[in-house]
Amino acid sequence: MKEDILVKEAEIKELEGIKKLITKNFNSYEKYNFSKSGRVEFLNNISEEELKERRNSGSRFIIAKGLEEIKGVMEVRPYNYINLFFIPKNDLELTKKLIKSYSDFCDKPKIINVPLYLEEIFNSLGFKKLCKEQEVEGVKFIPYKFTFKI
Question: What is residue 88's DSSP assignment?
Fold first, then answer.
């Protein structure tokens, strides 16, 4: 039996779970694509304090939550820019749930920076890759134009 997933905006008390999910996925799929300084930069940017600061500055954290744990997260910064998007690798259904929920929380989507391990999923969903892999302060990602064709 498949677990019911609730998609909602995260509460402050859920930031610890968000950090755990991102750290787990980063260590499992992404850290090998980053330089040492990039790994340090990325992990510094997902500390609970940093997540709380961004939330207090207007970022919204949309989570997909199962019975006990957070399964996926998307950080939407002011101006509808998706900064973080983390789910279990190859979970197309969870990706679709988070993407569909975006329109409930935001309008006028623009760009999503996709972790390298999710490139195949975003290609299969028909998102438009804006350019090749980018690296900023050692952090690697692929920018995609956000669409609602799901």
Answer: S
Q: Around Cβ 87, how many Cβ atoms within 10 Å?
A: 23
**27 vs 100, more confident:** 27
**Contacts for 150 with CB less than 8 Å, ≥ 6 apart:** 96, 99, 100, 125
Summarize the confidence of residues 83-96 as an average pLDDT: 81
Residues 6+ apart with CB under 8 A from 26: 42, 43, 46, 86
Alpha-carbon separation of residue 32 from 7, 10, 23, 29, 84 (angstroms): 30, 29, 13, 7, 18
Alpha carbons 43 and 128: distance in angstroms, whole number: 28
Q: Under a CB-based contact definition with an 8 Å cutoff, are residues 100 and 150 in contact?
A: yes
Q: State CA 123 to chain mean position distance.
A: 16
pTM: 0.78
Pairing of the two strands 128-129 and 60-65: unpaired
- With pLDDT > 70 as the criterion, what percentage of the chain qualifies? 89
